[in-house]
Amino acid sequence: MKPIQERNPVPIAVIGLVLVLVLGLLAYRADDLPVIGGGTTYTAHFTEAAGLNTSSEVRVAGVKVGKVTGVRLDRGRVKVSFRVKDVWIGNASTVAISIQTLLGDKYLAVAPLGSAAQNPRQTIPTNRTRAPYDVTQAFGDLGRTFGQLDTAKVAQSLQVISATFRDTPPDVRKALDGMTALSRTISSRDDRLARLLAGSDRLTGTLASQNTEYEALLKDGNLLLEELRLRREAIHRLLVASRELSRHLVGLVRDNEAQLAPTLTALDRVAKVLQDNQRNLDKALAIAGPYYRLVGNTLGNGRWTDAYLCGLVPKEYLKPGTPPANGCMPPKVGGEG
């Protein structure tokens, strides 16, 4: 086989690009792969979508088990497709669109009910599904409707009605007078109500734009609480283990008190003897050091022993100047002697 350096780089580059594209496609569609992805896909009919989208979660008892894969219109109803994995869906299971956050995010809540498994090819009917009441949308519709009202004409209409029913009984007249006063109040505070609704609209938009930050904050808070819980459990286990260790040590001392008391008494006597003879021990160690040094020097030249004899021959048999000048002192290493 030829080395890569000697091959044509064009087909190698094409093959490399194809492999990169295939790997990217596999990573993008990882949820659909049979080993790391997969799952079972079900469909359900709803009367309205209520803000559900294809990236919404599917939960069972609050635990994420899948995600929504499709939301489309089907003959006047909303058909939602969702895929779940490792969870049982019964033939009487109910599916509800629930509110996930205060900013309007939704998720699909599944209650696994029934005595038999749900057939994935059969769509869950609307009598087993439920859509939430969207408060945000209701307030938005109210604001738009109120902004389109002509408060002046409403007040004029109420005044005409009040004049028409002027000769009615006192109870009806009081009710109409109250309606007239209400219309005048609404008309006089039209600008303030408009500013209030505009401010509410801006607040809703700001909260919606910060949805990702709020989610990250809540997730980080959950991680912090989980870590604190784990640390609390670790400290609790440490305290329990320390208490058990102290209990066992107390039991050990109690069980061996009869044997430990004589031993400690004997150790005390030995320590007293050593303390009384500390001066003699120091002197012995001071003398033993040079002695063992000389023994080491004597035996450190191989398989024989060095010796130094002084005074063996009488001085009168020696030549003048040959006896050692310092008496019988051994010669120093490297010096004369």
Care to describe what's here?
With 337 residues, this protein is of the alpha/beta class. Among the domains are: 1-38; 39-133, no CATH class; 137-207, no CATH class. The protein contains eight helices and seven strands; from the N terminus they run αβββββββααααααα. It has helices spanning 9-28, 135-148, 151-164, 170-188, 190-209, 211-255, 257-276, 278-298; strands spanning 40-46, 57-60, 63-74, 77-84, 94-99, 106-111, 129-130. Strands 1-4-3-2-6-5-7 form a seven-stranded mixed beta sheet, with no helix packed on it. A hairpin with a 2-residue loop joins strand 2 (57-60) and strand 3 (63-74). Helix 2 packs antiparallel against helix 5 and helix 3 runs antiparallel to helix 4 (170-188). The protein is elongated. This is Phospholipid/cholesterol/gamma-HCH transport system substrate-binding protein. It holds the Pfam family MlaD. It comes from Thermomonospora echinospora. InterPro entries: Mce, Mce/MlaD, MlaD_Phospholipid_Transporter. Keywords: Membrane, Transmembrane, Transmembrane helix.
Quick gist of this model?
It contains eight helices and seven strands; from the N terminus they run H-E-E-E-E-E-E-E-H-H-H-H-H-H-H. With 337 residues, it is an alpha/beta fold.
